[in-house]
Amino acid sequence: MPLITLILLPFAGSLVAALLPANARNAESTLAGIVALACTIQVALLFPEMADGSVLRQEIEWLPSLGLNLVVRMDGFAWMFAMLVFGIGSLVVLYARYYMSPADPVPRFFSFLLAFMGAMAGVVLSGNIIQLVFFWELTSLFSFLLIGYWYHRKDARRGARMALTVTGTGGLAMLAGMLVLGHIVGSYDLDNILAAGQQVRNNHLYLPALVLILLGAFTKSAQFPFHFWLPNAMAAPTPVSSYLHSATMVKAGVFLLARLWPVLGDTDAWFWLVGGAGTATLLIGGYCAMFQHDLKGLLAYSTISHLGLITLLLGLNSKLAAVAAVFHIMNHATFKASLFMAAGIVDHESGTRDIRRLSGLRHMMPITATLACVASAAMAGVPLLNGFLSKEMFFAETVFLDAAPWVKTVLPVAATVAGMFSVAYSLRYTVDVFFGPRATDLPHAPHEPPHWMRVPIELLVLACLLVGIFPAWAVGQFLATAAAPVVGGDLPAYSLAIWHGWNMPLIMSLVALVGGILLYTMLRWQREAGRFEATPLLSALSGRRAFENLLARITLAGRAGRRALSTRRLQWQMLWLVCIAITATALPLWLQGMELGNRGTLPVSLPFVLLWAIGSLCALGTAWKAKYHRMTALIMLGGTGLCTCLTFLWFSAPDLALTQLVVEVVTTVLMLLGLRWLPKRDKALRNMVDNADARARARRLRDLVLSLIAGGGMAWLAFAMMSRPFYESSSTFFLEHALTGGGGTNVVNVMLVDFRGFDTFGEIVVLGIVSIVIYALLRRFRPARETMDIPEQQRYVPGDLQTDLLNPRNASDTAVGYLMVPAVLVRLLLPFSTLVAAYIFMRGHNQPGGGFVAGLVFSVALLMQYIISGTQWVEAHLPLYPRRWIATGLLCALGTGLASVAVGYPFLTSHSFDLALPLVGHVHVASATFFDIGVFALVVGSTMLILTAIAHQSVRGHRFHARLLEEQEQQAREAEAAVQAATAQALARGGM
Questions:
Q1: Which residues contact 204 (CB under 8 A, 6 or more apart)?
Q2: 412-431 pLDDT, tens per residue?
Q3: Beta-bridge mates of residue 629
Q4: Which residues pair with 58 in a beta bridge?
Q5: CA distances from 323 to 42, 313, 487, 495, 668 (A)
Q6: Which of 255, 351, 360, 782 could bond 444 through an S-S bridge, CB–CB 3.0 to 4.6 Å?
Q7: How far apart are alpha carbons 395 and 774 in whole angstroms?
Q8: What are phi and psi of 412, to 5 degrees?
Q9: What are phi and psi of 925, to 5 degrees?
Q10: Closest listed residue to residue 432, CA positions, set 514, 539, 343
Q11: Beta bridge partners of residue 71, listed in sequence order
């Protein structure tokens, strides 16, 4: 099975999961479990090849000229991480089946979880560093969705935003670093980069690349000073925390450090930056964990501390330390995932995670208590458990480090203190929660969870025991396979024996155990005395407050800058925009010089001059009439567009002319719909302000001069370019290869759907996004109250009046009255317009036409139905569902590109073939036709979505008018009642 399946399968499962019904919790969890387990088995079966030192590689060409191909690569280290991603992912899915409430939108949860799994697999298996950054940012996006899953909670929204902001910003910095790294090596391929370590370290750009890449790694793995986002992410459901914060997201940073260790490591800058950040994170995380009152908060800070431990090991510039880091990555994933799950069970069954309220749960939950105690002992580094072995290796590396004397003194002390912290918060997790008297004030009566909810913890705890008791047998071969690629292939000598005799690392472990017990006892006495409700010393240094304060200051600075440099008046904004554009264009031309070429000119054509004289007059008339006579201005603007169409025809560009003509029709309708909701302008008001007329004339003169400069400058620049001979023109290539390479004789269409198909795909994606955004904005758009009412001509006509000249608004069919003839015509026109659109589409690959023009023609036919028959009648008889058209178009275009990938060609590679169809005969078909179908569908959907969204405002106008009449009638009744009451009172007083 291809390696890329490991990335695609979770994403495919995510799409399927999103489509399942909300109450299909068993189906959702079964689907997610099958996907995760299938990937786990596939990865496990590859271990024999990984153990032999092989590197599996699958490459799919995308942009080979730029070195950007889709590369999936697996070595021993990637294999180990893939096993963690999929293996622990399988256990999390099983756990989540019982943890999630039936009231939760489970399809969304498992869809996001599988998508995150696929993104994480993409990070681990990427063989191209730009591709790695892409999946890296996807993990930030899907973790944002998972952390904010319970979006009705403020803490979930805040934690998700914080995580996305910090990790996403770090990802952008990392992208810059990867670009610099690729520039140094001359390739973005990971194999080439891993082989160029000496070249990278000797380059003068090494330090900028290192700092930028470390920013990405530190933000993702919550290293100091970016550690504050991780505790705030604990608002996520516990299955998310156990997955993201044990084996996947937070491990991505240390994965990157280990991945690039042969390239960026072994320098002083690496030692101080990576080692310093790791040491600070190790101590700060462990210190804060001891004072947390939330079980998940304690585990979050302990995760920060252990990630700091791994980072510190990778920063020591020692191969043996790198092996220890890989070992602790494996160990930490097992005991931390089980601890998060145990905390989730406590919360699920007791109703709280507050350690101050929990006590004596071992009496009600003995099995869960036992599992949690073993896992927390592994976290504390107790002998005969896996955490003890990797922590012993860590102590050994700090003791035998070859560094400055003060560093050799400080690091062992720091490591021992961190070990004491680890023991203290591990005891708090177990003793305070599971021992002592029974808790009596819990929201729920605690009890053991369903057995299958506990199975993932049992398997993980079993792994902790097996590795701790039989390390060489249980994990020796896996560790060697995973660590070899990190250290460059040559493993240093190390031992996984439990007993190494009495030595300094063992003494440090004993000191940490005894010191941690004493520290926990002292802190417990202080808490019982009412102290340490917050973290001493560091509680005032809140990362969350600093982050939110920074965001607030950035927002205020942005608003101040906008007030200083911007204005609400569109005219001034356009003035500044045009002035800046003119300056940016003219300045380099002025400095470098720009002269006309010596290419010969064609003789002047009088008809062409006359054509553009008419076009120019139309443009001037548009500007002159735009303020008070909008309809006239729009008609003249159409005249300018028509002149442009004729110009394209003049220069033998029928494709452009046809497109321009249809675009003119659509944009005219769009502007008509938009002008309906603009407030009226009254000429009588323009002289009410002193000197208003003089200022308007000055402003118009300024705008005229500016427009002449801009238009004349662009005309001169275009003429200067055309007066030069083109020795190397891309048009020659397209003309020569359109038929042979693209299967069509219409060069323009072949360029759009074949040679530049990826550009077109990006453009239709943007078009779809823009149309959906416009639709979303217009749904909330409410015009000014003075423009909401129906036109004045319609206000005084009874709604039920029906004559030869009137079209009643409440008629069941709008083809009555004065609209009878046009309504019948446009309905007859629709099938003919559809046929014309199909004809233009089918001929597009060899003659002027194509999916874009055909989509606009079909859209115009549909728009005519709306204009004549009305929005409500059309949508009642011809439901369009524009968003489905957009989705179908995108999927069709994407499917065409992926089909070429499936048969071993680059994305969107075109193929042509001949078909012999019954009754039709010989038909030449290009695969780009299916891509063009996607363009057609998306153009129809986008055009109709935007225009019908504006058209719906007219429906609101009639509703507004009806409400207005009701209000007026109500006011009249109230006034009449008031008059009657006043009359009655007057009569009563007169009678007295």
A1: none
A2: 999 999 999 999 999 999 99
A3: none
A4: 72
A5: 25, 9, 8, 11, 68
A6: 351
A7: 60
A8: -60, -40
A9: -125, 135
A10: 343
A11: 59
Residue 245 gets which letter from DSSP?
A: T
Q: Which residue bears the tokens 């045009």?
A: 578
Alpha-helical segments (H) within 148-245: 154-185, 190-194, 197-202, 206-220, 229-232, 238-244
Residue 917 bridge partners (DSSP): 921
Using an 8 Å Cβ cutoff, are 211 and 267 in contact? no
Q: What is the structure's pLDDT at 816?
A: 61
Alpha-carbon distances, residue 167 vs 174, 233, 299, 834, 883 (angstroms) = 10, 12, 20, 50, 32
Tokens 């696929």: give the residue. 118
User: Taking the model in full, what pTM does it have?
Assistant: 0.78
Ramachandran class of 222: left when φ > 0, alpha when ψ lies in -120 to 50, beta otherwise: left
C-alpha radius of gyration, the chain, whole number: 36
pLDDT of residue 554 exceeding 70: yes
In one-letter notation, the amino acid at residue 36 is: A
C-alpha–C-alpha distance, residues 739 and 929, integer Å:
14
Report yes or no: 240 and 180 within 8 Å, Cβ to Cβ: no
CA-to-CA distance for 222 and 280, rounded, in angstroms? 12
CB 702 within 8 A of CB 572: no
Is residue 820 a contact partner of residue 715, using CB atoms and an 8 Å limit?
no
Instruction: List the structure tokens of 590.
Output: 């002025």
Helical segments of 100-128, H only: 106-125
Q: CA torsion sign, 76 to 78 to 79 to 84? A: positive
Which residues 6+ apart lie within 8 Å of 599 measured at CB?
Answer: 722, 723, 724, 725
Cα(459)–Cα(37) distance, integer angstroms: 15
Question: Around Cβ 340, how many Cβ atoms within 10 Å?
Answer: 29
pLDDT, one tens digit per residue, over 641-655 is 899 999 988 888 888
Q: Is the dihedral of CA 655, 656, 659, 660 positive or negative?
A: negative
Tens of pLDDT, residue by residue over 890-901, are: 999 999 888 887
What confidence tens digit (pLDDT) does each residue in 584-604 have? 888 888 887 777 777 777 788
CA 381 to chain CA mean position, Å = 39
pLDDT in tens, 443-500: 888 888 988 999 999 999 999 999 999 998 989 899 999 999 998 878 888 888 887 7
Model pLDDT for residues 339-365, shown as the tens digit of each residue: 999 999 999 888 888 888 888 888 889
Tokens at 131, concatenated: 């591709």
φ, ψ of residue 223 in degrees (nearest 5): -90, 150
pLDDT for 936: 93
586 vs 713: CA distance, rounded Å: 8
**Cα angle, residue 71 at apex, residues 66 and 75 outer, rounded to 5°:** 135
Q: Return left, alpha or beta for 802; rule: phi > 0 is left, psi -120 to 50 is alpha, else beta.
A: beta
Q: Contact, 304 vs 285, CB < 8 A?
A: yes
Q: Scanning the structure block, which residue is given the tokens 């590197």?
A: 55
Neighbours of 508 (CB within 10 A): 22
Q: How many CB atoms sit inside 10 A of residue 635's CB?
A: 15
741 contacts 754 by C-beta, under 8 angstroms: yes
Residue 375 tokens read as 């896992």
DSSP 203: S
The SS3 call for residue 56 is: strand
Residues 6+ apart with CB under 8 A from 402: none
pLDDT higher than 60, residue 688? no
Q: How many CB atoms lie within 10 A of CB 560?
A: 10
Which helix or strand (DSSP H or E) is residue 405 part of?
Answer: helix 405-434
Cα three-residue angle 929-933-937, rounded to 5 degrees: 170
Q: How far apart are CA 648 and CA 408, in angstroms?
A: 77
3-state secondary structure of 925: strand
Is 723 a residue whose pLDDT tops 90? no
How far is Cα 237 from Cα 100, in angstroms, rounded to an integer? 8
- Which ranges constitute the DSSP H helices of 594-679? 606-625, 630-650, 654-675
